[in-house]
Amino acid sequence: MMLKSAKLVCCLVVAMTVIAASFMGVSPVKAASLTIVQSVMGNIFYENDAKTFNVQTDGASVDWSYTDYWGTTVESGTTLVSSGSAIITVNPNKYGWFQLLVKAKDSSGAALLQTETSFAVVSNFDLNQVTSSHFSVQTHAARTDGIAQDASVLLPIAKKLGVKYVRDSFRWSDIEDTTKGIYNFKSFHNNFMNTLTANNLSMIFTAALNNPLYDNGNFPTSTEALAAYANYAKTAVQRFPSQIKWMEVWNEPDIKTYTMGLTPEQRPGAYFELLKATYPVVKNAAPTLPIIGGVVASTYQANASFPNTLFSLGGLSYMDQFSFHNYNTDPNILAGDITDFNNRINFYNNNVTIPMNMTEYGISTANFSEEFQAYRQAQKTILGYANGLNLMSSYNLQDKIYDPTNVDNSRGLVRNPKDPKGAYAPKKAFSTYAALTRQLSNTTFSSADKLSNSSIASYTFTKGAETIRTMWTTDGTAQGVSLHTNSSIMVTDIMGNSSKRTPVNGIIQLTLTQNVQYIKGNVTRVVPNVSTGTVTTAEVEGLPTTVSSGDSHTLITGTAGSYSGTGADKLSANAVDDYVTYAVYIPQPGAYDIKVKSIRFSDRGTYQLVIDGMSVGSRQDEYRSSTLSTETDLGNYYFGTAGNKEFKFQIVGKNANSSGYTLLLDYVKLTKLSVDQDIIVDNTDSGATFHSRWSTSDKPKGYYGTDYAHHKSTSKDLKSWAMWTPDIPLEGDYKLYMWWPSGPNRADAAPLIIQYGASTDTGQTVNQKVGGGTWNLIGTYHLMPGSGNYVKVSGADDGFTIADAVRFEWVH
Fold first, then answer.
1. How many helices (H) and strands (E) does the chain have?
2. Is the separation of the CB atoms in 735 and 777 below 8 Å?
3. Per residue in 662-688, pLDDT tens?
4. Is the peptide bond before 396 cis (omega within 30 degrees of 0)?
5. Would you say residue 428 has pLDDT above 70?
6. Do the Cβ atoms of 443 and 32 come closer than 8 Å?
7. How far from the centroid of its chain's Cα atoms is residue 106's Cα?
8. ∠670-674-679 over CA atoms, to 5°?
9. Mean pLDDT, to the nearest integer, of 2-20?
């Protein structure tokens, strides 16, 4: 039954009063009750509202706490009960969705009952300032049947949501209800429109559905029924010209539910006749009103026969815009559906497109989590907008009935009035949609970032001189991204909370997940961070290129499969010191293995790769008597910054058998390397070896790991040694540290031998009487990749020599 006023709804409680606390395994002295009364409808607060909850209970006190969208506790407390009531005031100091848990306790502190509800905090948002919006939400608040909803409650909630439009229907049988040709608009129609206007909202009017006065209540097919439907639609539009901004002809005419009396084969033809009868009548009464046709339940990919037949009959001549519904839970499929419809429309409409809308889409919390609904809602809305949709209407604002297991009835952004978690209380998707409307209203789609080898979605929108980029990962994994900018940017999370970020060396690092983030500011380039092992291939023929004076370079193509990409680049060099350079983009700072593919031949020279002035790898003789494609590993290189780097291939000579100095290069391949900043070898690790008399002990404390090794001598014993051999992943400078447990009986000058590359340091000793239980810096050494480096300690002149752990810290 329809609720008669918002005041009555406001008294609805979050949880039914519970009498038997014994269900919780508690044996209270008396019965307990616990309810939460809303102070604001649906617990949806503007940022400046007092955020209070009236907890009614016969307990002595209540413990309360609430968590945010990510499950982090924001606040908690205990409030005493007075006269059966406790007022809880929360202050999250941020926007978003929150889950409130309240526990009633007796005077001894024993728990009696607990209940929970959700609430939302949204920023102030003036819809009067919204001149361009693509966002709508579905209600069922202009009717009186079993799923009728309360306009006085839902339309103010829609206003807080931040949508500009509400999709609903004044049903044909409610208006032309008793006598043919007599139109009886009801008070609930007028109330709906008055409340719509009071909340600065407009309507997408769906003219529907069957009328028992015509064609036995089936889909209208007779001449009389077609004319009557057209006149009903015209009459509704004329009655509410300022509120109705779009009109849809019927709803889902491609499925059985809304085409009573028709076979599947009859549906497209019957709907075409309905369009043809309705369009001129409504257009004559409201020439500027966009009339939407199609309104199909199935996408083209799922069911091509209906739109194909409708379009071939000429249906596009009787609609200004086309609409479809999409309930696929994977938003990444949406772009394909839109493309399919556009292609079909162009095919039947002389290559002329028309605006397209998605007037129903949503995800049910009956078979998906609220979090899934929340981030998918945001992703799908943005993808629809970015792929050219004019309108997107989320279905529904409110759960139609309270049945958590019913898929269709649980698509709401807020709960049903009968939901024990709270009448009209928000789901997480309410807050994600509210954040989105505030970020993207009054914007225009600009472009999509094409990010190869990445699961990152990135779309930009403009609002005047401001650029807003929306970003998330399509596979739900966390992925780092480098935003190149010379100025600070504002990053807003999926709940609408903003923070300022300042670049370091022209880059701001951001971690993306499935939760949409909004980036405002001048970002010149977006580069996905590459993880260890990621391979980036730069085709040299597509890179910015320079050559030495008097020389030239030429694109060489061949048979399919001869070269990677579109071909290879040939340097026509003729002397030593000639060169070709390529600007190779480095996606992020770090160490990379560098491979170069070349095509060797009898006229090739010998080159040296030079990166930013430093020789990398050995000289490469490109001479071969016959053609040979070769990928050569030139070793590793560390790039301190991201961006374009100069790869210079310089001629340094030629083989005695070569007839020239040319080079033919195909690509440069970069593989991201991982360098452990703390390469540690303990005495128990496989990289530690011992010669002669060494023992282990775990007393006294102060050792690294599980124990340490020691050697007792009264004179220098170079034959008794311990050695640590690290596995060095990358050539570079490393700080060497040693760890030992100290004591008065330790060696004060234990001799070290440090092998680093081709060099040996024998001048170091360590005083193990002091410095125990910490890392002691020995020095910095340039180490080569592999296992050719080591640290060796030998028996000292007197006392115990300790062999515990060594550490190598990479410093490039």
1. 10, 49
2. yes
3. 999 999 999 888 664 578 899 999 999
4. yes
5. yes
6. no
7. 45
8. 150
9. 37
The residues facing 630 across adjacent strands are 598
pLDDT tens-digit profile of 53-69? 999 999 999 999 999 99
| DSSP string across 61-79 | EEEEEEEETTS-EEEEEEE
Strand 466-473, strand 765-766: pairing: unpaired
**What beta strand segments (E) does 107-243 contain?**
111-122, 135-138, 165-168, 202-207
User: For residue 533, which phi and psi values (nearest 5 degrees)?
Assistant: 90, -10
240 in Cβ contact with 280 (< 8 Å): no
pTM, to two decimals = 0.71
In the three-class reduction of DSSP (H, G, I as helix; E, B as strand; rest coil), residue 371 is classed as helix
What whole-number distance in Å separates Cα of residue 260 and Cα of residue 258?
6
Structure tokens at 427: 């789901």
State the pLDDT at residue 5.
Answer: 38
Cα 46-412-459 angle, rounded to 5 deg? 75
What does the alpha-carbon distance between residue 67 and residue 778 come to, in Å, rounded to a whole number? 49
Q: Residue 37: in which H helix or E strand, if any?
A: strand 34-38
The torsion angle over the Cα atoms of residues 757, 759, 763 and 765, rounded to 10 degrees, is 10
9 neighbors 423 (Cβ within 8 angstroms): yes
Cβ pair 359, 391 in contact under 8 A = yes
d(CA 394, CA 341): 20
Q: How big is the chain, counted in residues?
A: 812
Residue with tokens 């009959």: 313
Residue 157 burial (CB count, 10 A):
22
Give the rounded distance of the alpha carbon of 12 from its chain centre.
36
Say which residue the tokens 């062999």 belong to: 803
**Token output for 764:** 């170091």
Could you tell me if 396 and 362 are in contact, meaning their C-beta atoms sit under 8 angstroms apart?
yes
> What's the CA gap between 691 and 695, in Å, rounded?
11
Encoded tokens for 437: 């409307």
The CA distance from 295 to 278, in Å, is 15
Phi-psi region of 664 (alpha: psi -120 to 50; beta: other; left: phi over 0): beta
